[in-house]
Amino acid sequence: MGVLPFENLYLEFRTSLGRAFVIADPHIGFEIERGVRIRSGFEGRLAEFIVGVDPDLLVILGDLKEPLGMGFATKKLLTEFFSKLGDTKVVITKGNHDGRIEEVTKKFPNVKVVEYLLLDRKLFLHGHTRLPKAEFEEVYLGHIHPTYSIKTGGAIRKVKVFVRKGPFLVLPTINPYIEGFDVREGIKMVPFLKGRTEFDLFLPEGVYLGKIRV
119: domain range? Predict the structure, then answer.
């Protein structure tokens, strides 16, 4: 299998801590939960991709892992992932799938697990809880794996999208094996976006798809 299509499913920022690389919802170990017998090698290829990008800071917007628990196989996959990242500085904004993740991250001094990260008035978090009491200008989150169905050549195709509403930007999952949820349903799973009815959609390559109402 060649290089996985991670391109455009992330964000990059120049920050006071250097160049920050931001991804959402890797769901490492998804094969374990979904009964897939053949290993995808996803976590290794993702780590290699990140090392190649060589950021000063990697921000993972939660749900680093898929299994809710922390079995031996999950620990092994996560340990291999962090080991391949070397000394890359990593901040994980803890997601609803990240229970007991500290059992692995405590072994890596360059990896920090937080509820949210506030950096240069940019707020990074998973998106499954209420907003923290923090002053921010922009918010970046994951959690809902947004997708949208578009019609091309008479066929309907589901595509991953970035979702914008004012200062809020929702990232799609970085995992190419996970398709995601229709954005109109997924957005209801974010407490601080409930009640908002109109959103802007963008394809990962930056093409503006227009507004949708939910």
Answer: 11-145+163-177
Domain membership flag for residue 195: no
Looking at the 3D structure of the chain, how many domains does it have?
Answer: 1
**98 DSSP assignment:** -
CATH code of the domain covering residue 128: 3.60.21.10
Does 152 map to a domain? no
Ranges under pLDDT 70 in the chain:
1-4, 33-38
DSSP 23: E
* Residue 28 resides in a domain: yes
Task: Say how far apart CA 163 and CA 134 lie, in whole Å.
Answer: 22
Tokens for 109, please give them.
């001094």
**Per-residue model confidence as pLDDT tens digits over 31-90:** 876 665 567 789 999 999 999 999 999 999 999 999 988 999 999 999 999 999 999 999
Buried b / exposed e across 40-74, counting CB within 10 Å, b at 16+?
Answer: bebbebbbebbeeeebebbbbbbbbbbbeebeeeb
Task: Identify the DSSP state of 153.
Answer: T
Strand order in the sheet with 138-141: 117-119, 122-124, 138-141, 168-170, 162-165, 198-202, 208-213
Backbone angles phi, psi at 164, to 5 degrees: -115, 135
DSSP 130: P
- Given a contact cutoff of 8 angstroms between Cβ atoms, the answer to whether 175 and 25 are in contact is yes
